[in-house]
Amino acid sequence: MAGVRFEFGIKPSLSEEALIVVPYQSHFETLLKHIPDGSGFVGWRIVTLERLARKLASQLFPEYAIANRTILFAVAHSVAIESDYLSSFSGYRSPVFTEKLLEFFEAMQHAGILSGRDVDELNKKANIGRKTRAAAEEFKKFREKLKKLGLFTFEDVFSLSADVLRSGIVPEILAGKRSVVFHDFFEFNIPQQKFIKALAEKFDVTISYPLPYSHYPRFWRSPIDKLAKLFGVTIKSSEFASNPLVKALNGELETCYDDVYFLRLPDPQREARFTAQLAKLWALEMNLSPDEITVVTPDP
Q1: What is the mean pLDDT of residues 193-209?
Q2: Domain range spanning residue 273?
Q3: HSE of 19 in the Cβ direction (CA atoms, 13 Å)?
Q4: Contacts for 160 with CB less than 8 Å, ≥ 6 apart
Q5: Residue 13 sits in a domain of what CATH number?
Q6: First to last CA, the chain
Q7: How far is CA 264 from CA 174, 248, 257, 258, 267, in A?
Q8: Domain for residue 192, yes or no?
Q9: 102 and 144 share a domain?
Q10: Which of 80, 113, 148 is at the close of a domain?
């Protein structure tokens, strides 16, 4: 396979040979609007990333259960108590501190630190402070306890599934598929990146976006560019953002006053910024291009 491809200005269509993955359930309605009448539809051909993880877990690792955040909190709390870790932070109420500790554990997992060996490698780094090193040792105990309880996390699912794919086994949800499309994603954690790279060795993998690249404001293009770099892709756009709304979203307000005229407002720049931000929210929520939004001001 040719690796991961990025596409812009498209809405993926259903195909029996494609699996479409979206970030949230709300993306279903948007995608279904663009499916021709009479098209066949099987629900799991469009799945959220969480649903994909659950499918992979049930099909590849039935002996484990994915722990929800409440269970993860309880495990983190019990580990901290058993090792007397909380006594070092007597100024904290334990539930509050456990929540902070769990956030640290989750950040470790997002960074692909999933084993005791990973923690040992982390602890060798000279820039790791004493408290961080101690918390990393607690993380090692946390991971061991999860395993004893027959539990694992979403990060485990993607990391282990990548290994399974590379061993030649294809899970049921991917059987008969030629391509996998990740639609409208702006970030993937390290275990998810590992899984996508393993997918790309066997399937055509596309990361797609509903708008042309140049229609995204600068603060949305930045995470897209970072993703592309992670997958070894260079995005080249021949389009330039000439639409006044796009200029406003990019903070180029001074360049768009000839096109967007605000009548008798006490602070035109502030009003322009507010209007642009509101339009951005509508554009993202309704899956609109900035060209489809018109700002109307009252007559003088």
Answers
A1: 96
A2: 244-292
A3: 22
A4: 60, 61, 152
A5: 3.40.50.300
A6: 60
A7: 59, 19, 13, 15, 9
A8: yes
A9: yes
A10: 148
Instruction: Please give the model's pTM, rounded to 2 decimal places.
Output: 0.77
Tens of pLDDT, residue by residue over 236-257, are 765 444 555 555 555 555 544 4
Residue 139 contacts by C-beta under 8 Å, 6 or more apart in sequence? 104, 105, 108, 113, 119
Residues 95, 141 share a domain? yes
Q: CA-to-CA distance for 241 and 148, rounded, in angstroms?
A: 54
The answer to whether residues 53 and 9 belong to one domain is yes
Q: How far apart are CA 28 and CA 24, in angstroms?
A: 8
Inform me whether the pLDDT recorded for 276 exceeds 90: no
Give the residue carrying structure tokens 């639409």. Answer: 243
Cα 152 to Cα 79: distance, rounded to the nearest angstrom? 16
10 Å CB burial of residue 181 (0-12, 13-18, 19+) is: buried
Q: How many structural domains are present in the chain?
A: 3
Q: Give the type of residue at 176.
A: G
Q: Which of 165, 237, 241, 240 is nearest to 203 (CA)?
A: 165
**Helix (H) / strand (E) containing 179:** strand 179-183
Token pair listed for 178: 């030629």
> pLDDT (tens digit, 9 = 90+) per residue, 225-239?
999 999 999 887 654
299 in a domain, yes or no? no
